[in-house]
Amino acid sequence: MPEATNYYKQLEADVNAAFPPEEAALVKRAYDFAYEAHRGQLRRSGEDYIIHPVAVAKILLQFGMDYQSVIASLLHDVVEDTPVTAGEVRRIFGADVAQLVDGVTKLGKVPLASREEQQAENLRKLLLAMSEDIRVIIIKLADRLHNMRTLKFVPEQKRRDTARETIEIYAPIAHRLGIRPVKEELEDLAISYLDPVAYGEIERALEEQGSQRKEFLDQIKQKIGERIRTFVPDAVIEGRIKSVHGIYRKMYMQGKSFEEIYDIYAVRIIVDTVGDCYNCLGVIHDMYKPIQGRFKDYISTPKPNMYQSLHTTLLGKEGIPFEVQIRTHEMHKTAEYGIAAHWKYKLGVKDKESNRRIEKGIGWVRQLLEVQSESGEVADILNTIKNDFVSDEVFVFTPKGDVICLPLGATVIDFAYSIHSAVGNKMVGAKVDKRIVPLDYKVKNGEIVEVLTSSQPGKGPSRDWLKIVTTNEARTKIRTWFKKERREENIVEGRQEYERELRRNNMNPTEEQAQQLVTILSEKQKQPTVDDFYAALGYGGIILSKIMPMIREEYNKIVSAAQKSAPKLKKAKTVSGEGVVVEGIDNCLVKLSRCCNPIPGDDIIGFITRGHGISVHKRDCTNVPRDIASSPEPERWMRVYWNTSEKQEFYASLLLTCIAGDKLMNDIFTTLNSIHVAITGINTRATKDGRLLVNVTLRADSVEHLRSIMTKLSKTAGVTSVERSGADI
Ligand code: MN
To answer: Do 525 and 553 belong together in one domain?
Structure first.
C-alpha cells in the first residue's frame, strides 16, 4: 500500500519518539487498519477520510497520551462509519482499545427522539464511558477539535449546530478537565462560526493595539524579569494574550469595552517552589500598584479542575492594567494539560497519587450522572453542563474549609444543593461569614457559607426556590423532591390532565382499550408503573403535548386492532347471552327474538341487527328467508348454536285450543302445577265457533322439557290441541 503510508508519515516520527518499538508497531497496524476501513470515504473538504483520524492522533501525541489512546483515536470512526464491528476492533487491538472506541461511538438513532434527546443520550453514554476510562473524553475532545478546525467545509446549518454544541458542551467539559488550550481553541473557533462579525472586530482590535501593547508588555516583562531573577535566578517569564472568546464574553456579555478588559495581556511567572511564588508576589506588589479585589490565591485553594496559580492585577506606568499569574512548573503543566498532564508527564495511570487526582478531577462526572439518575431525565445532563459549567465561577468555603465552586450569581440555596440534596431539602436558612443572610443571597469569592437545616419532619423546599436558584443542579434536585414527596397529588393531577387531553383530542377508548393504551404509554416513557406515568405527567417530567403524536399513534393501533380482531376470531366459539353460541363473535349482545321465541334444542339462526346485537330466530321462523344466499342481506345472517353445556331457562308460548267449560282453567293449572312449571303469563280468547284459545307463556329449560309439558297439557280434559305459538295472541 504505497499510498497508505503517505499519511502515516505525519505521525511516524512522533510515534517512534514516544513509544517503544512494539507499541509503535501496533500504532502503525491501527493506522493501516483504519486506512483500509475508510478507503474511498472522503471528508467534506474532498480529502481522504483518513486525514481526520490521523489529525486526531496527532493531537493526542501532542498531549503525550499513551499508545492505546493513539490507537483508539486512529480507529475512533471505524465502528460508526464503516462496516468494521466493535468485535473486530476488540479481537485485533484488545479490550481497552475497544472500550475507548466504543466510548466515542455515538448511539444508533433513537426512534421518536428529538435532536436534543439524541444529543443528551449520546452525551450520557460518553460520560458513562468517561467515568470508566477518562481517556475517552480526551480522545473525544481531540476529535471535536479537529472537526472544529475543519468546520468551514460543513453546510451552514450543521456548522452552526456543531459550533453551538461545542461552546455549550465540549468547551465547558475541557474547562472542567483543566485542558486550557483546548478549551480556548474550541471557544474561539465556535465564536468565529457563530458570530463572525464580532470575532473579526476583536481580532482587528487585538491587531491594531497589538504592536503598541506588545511593546508595553515586553517592557514590563523585562523589568519584572530583572527584579525577580535577583531572588529566583531561573524564573521563567512569559507574556500571553487572552483568548478571543474570553474578550468576547467580557465585551458582549458583561458589556465592557475593549479598553476596560484588564487581562487581555498577562505576564506569567513560573518558578520552582510554592515559597518562590509568594516571594514573587511580594516583589511584584512592591513594583506596581495592585488593583483592589483582583488578587486570587488559587494555590491555597485550587479550582475544582486542579488549576493552581496566584493571580493579581496591577497598574502599569501609563495607567494600563495588566494581570500577573505566578505558579510553579508543576502547576503550569496542570494548567496547560489538566487531566491529560498525568499522561504527558509520565505520572503514570497506575501511580496512586495520580489516580487520586484523576478521581478528583472527574468527580463531577459521577455527580452529574447521579443528578440525572435521580431526576430520571437525560436532558438534565445537557442543562447542567450548559448552565453550571461556565467559566465565570465563584469559590466559596464550607465551615470545614472545603472549596465549593459555583457559577457566578449562585445563591446560598445553590450552595446547599451542591453539598447534597439532603442538605438543600432540609435548609431553613444560611449564614455567610457567620452572619445570617436571606435565601436569595448571592455568594461571593472566598466567603464561608454555612447552611442552617431543620430536622423537623415534613420540612422541604419551597416552590419559590425554583425562581431563586441559578444552578441547574439545584433546580433539578428541587424538582426531584417535589416529584417524590408529592407523588399522590402528582398522580391525581397527571391522570386528570391525561384524560382531559384524550377527550379534547376526540379519543374515546373503551375501558379495556384505555387500560391497554396507558400501559403501553407507560412502557414507552420508561415508567415502571401506570401510576409513575401519571405522576410524571403531574410534576411535569413528561410533557403531555410533546407525546401527543405518540399517544395518537398508539390509540389508533389499539382501536384498529380491536376492529380487526373480530374476523380473526371467526373460528372461536364463545358463549354470548341467552345460552347461545355465536360463531366468530365474542360476548356480543344476543336476544332471542320475540317473533318465534326459540328455546334450546330448536334449530336456530342469528341476524345481525343494527345496534342491538344479534337476534336469534328459529330456523323456520317466518321472518327468516328460506334461501338465505339469495336474500337481500345474506351477510347479516350467521350461524348460532345453543350452548349445550349450560343449563338455562327459556320462555315459551303455547297455544291451547280448548272446549270451553267450567273446570277448564282449573284443570290446566293443576296439570302445570303437577309438573312444576312456572307460568309467567296467560290470556284467553273465545272464538266465534265456541272454542276457547288459551295462550300460556311459561318457563322451560329445554325443548325436551317443553315437549313433556305439551304432552301433559294435551291429555288434559277440554284441551283439543297444543302447539307452540310465536307470540302472545
Ligand atoms: Mn471523528
So the answer is: yes
**How far does the centroid of ligand 1 lie from the alpha carbon of residue 60, in Å?**
13
Q: Report the distance separating Cα 140 and Cα 103, nearest Å.
A: 9
Strands (E) across 8-158 are located at none
| CA 595 from centre of chain | 64
Between 161 and 320, the more confident residue is: 161
Per-residue model confidence as pLDDT tens digits over 36-85: 999 989 988 888 999 999 999 999 999 889 999 999 999 999 998 888 88
* Ligand 1 center–CA 159 separation, angstroms: 15
Active-site hit among 32, 81, 272, 649: 81
Q: Is pLDDT above 90 for 272?
A: yes
Question: Domain of 540?
Answer: 486-565
User: From residue 38, how far is each of 4, 41, 55, 68 by CA, in Å?
Assistant: 11, 5, 14, 20
Q: Helix axis angle, 95-104 relative to 135-149, nearest 10°? A: 50
Q: Is residue 350 part of a domain?
A: no
Run of H or E residues at 564: helix 544-568
Q: pTM here?
A: 0.62
Contact present, 698 and 652 (Cβ < 8 Å): yes
Residues 620, 666, single domain; the answer is no
Coil vs helix vs strand at 574:
strand
Is residue 367 domain-resident?
Answer: no
Q: b/e map of 464-486 (b: 16 or more CB within 10 Å)? A: ebeebbbbbbbbbbbbbbbbeeb
Is 385 contained in some domain?
no
Burial grade of 567 (CB within 10 A; 0-12, 13-18, 19 or more): exposed
Q: How many domains does the chain have?
A: 6
CA–centroid distance, 7 to ligand 1, in Å, is 16
Contact 617, 604 (CB under 8 A): yes
Say if residue 270 is in the same domain as residue 156. Answer: no
**Cα 581 to ligand 1 centroid, rounded to whole Å:** 67
Contacts of 217 (CB under 8 A, 6+ apart): 239, 265, 267, 322
Are 294 and 311 spatial neighbours (Cβ–Cβ below 8 Å)? yes
The question of whether 218 is a catalytic residue gets the answer no
Cell of 537: 405527567
Residue 145 reports pLDDT greater than 80: yes
139 and 183 share a domain? yes
Distance 166 CA to ligand 1 centre (A): 14
Q: What is the CATH number of the domain that holds 654?
A: 3.30.70.260
Residue finishing a domain among 565, 599, 623: 565
b/e map of 148-180 (b: 16 or more CB within 10 Å)? Answer: bebbeebeeeebeebbebbbbbbbbbbbbbbbb
**Cα of 77 to ligand 1 centre, how many Å?**
5
CA of 23 to the centre of ligand 1 (A): 23
- 336 has catalytic annotation: no
Of 293, 65, 681, 47, nearest to 56 (Cα)? Answer: 65
Tell how far the Cα of 52 is from the centroid of ligand 1, in angstroms: 7
